[in-house]
Amino acid sequence: MDELKQFIEQNRNLFDTSEPMDGHFDRFLQKLEADQRRTISHSHSQMLKIAAVAVVAVIIGAVVAGTGVHQSVKLIESGMANAENSTPMELVERTTRYVKAKVEPEYSETQKYYITLVDSRLDEIRTDNTVDEKQKAELLKAMSEMDELFVNLQKELKANPDNAVLIDAMINHYQTKIEVLNKIISNLNSIKQLNTQQDEKVDL
Amino acid sequence: METKYIDIHSQLIDECRNGSSKAQFEIYKLYYKAMYNTCLRFVKNPMEAEDVMQEAFLAAFRNIDSFRGEVSFGSWLKRIVVNRSLDVLKKKSLDLEPLEEGRTIIDTDDDRDYEANYKVEQVKKAIALLPDSYRVLLTLHLFEGYDHEEIAQIMEMSNAAVRTGYSRARKRLQELLETKKFEIWMS
Q: What chain B residue is nearest to A1 in terms of C-alpha separation?
């Protein structure tokens, strides 16, 4: 056995007596804070990406299942098949690729277009007097919840103005919103149709 | 008591995983001294040692997910500290080739009956006097407890090179410790 090694082991506390210079706690706290800020904004944007993907996937899934477009389902499934090994970034890209057709125009132009479209659909629901007021309120509330996510995306975009993934997520958000609205409207229409048919039967 | 001690740490480590800066600072307070002294033995300059030590902590917190408890948290952290210290030395172009054996023993002193404290100071100063390559090899083994294979891995050297380098370094240290001349520097 190495005597010196033994001696060091036995007297380790006598060897480790140096202290960093005064103020090292404060210096470390400053570094920690700076590092924390970086990590938080990073994980925050990661979280938003995941949330965007989740919303897109769930809503599109619901829309597609509801309309029974089997081909689209297959398309989305194939897109999500390797989802487990993907980074959130890849997931967003893959999802957008399968969910939307090509969206290449300037973002602001795109945004205007979608805002108009969303508003016209929302008006359609609002002015539909065959819909129960309570149901209407619930529908509009659900839509405004979707808006909250969008506000977060907008905030994130302000912080990272050139982030293509964010812009994609925002466009996606509009598209899914419209799809959801279309679905709602078509459901309302089929209910209306059903009601009139029943009315007709009664008439006969 | 032993179990409680470990429990306190694993709870803190879990909080660190969740990004609690309070827990991270607690961990710093628990480990900074051991880590600082390790850094200091490698890089010698106090300012630089502090910087390396603190950056190692930050890196550890950033990569805390890669800590899976195969080793104690202390050894895991220590390894980061050691690697970062060596990086600093490498940047300063530390000569990793063990130096040629050139010096000879001047005088030996048979009286080994020192107070532990005095002996500690002797060992400290003797190690500090060694050239970088010798100091690193000795410190990794004597203080950090890595075996020759682990040192070879850390230093990216062959096992044989570590063995030869280590025995030369060890001999040189022994010379320094036993040299009367050195004792005069000590006083």
A: B142
Question: Which CATH fold would you assign to the domain B116-186?
Answer: Arc Repressor Mutant, subunit A (1.10.10)
Contact between A45 and A158 under an 8 Å Cβ cutoff? The reply is no
> Tens digit of pLDDT for each residue in B7-47?
568 889 999 988 888 999 999 999 999 999 999 999 989 99
Distances (CA, A) of A62 to A9, A145, B11, B102: 65, 17, 41, 80
User: Do B21 and A36 form a contact (C-beta atoms < 8 A)?
Assistant: yes
Residues of B in contact with A7 (CB under 8 A): 119, 123
User: What are the strands, taking DSSP E only, across chain A?
Assistant: none
Contact check, Cβ <8 Å, A20/B62? no
The enclosing H or E element of B62 equals: helix B46-62
Provide ipTM, 2 decimals: 0.77
Q: What CATH number is given for B2-91 in this structure?
A: 1.10.1740.10
Q: Which residues contact B147 (CB under 8 A, 6 or more apart)?
A: B141
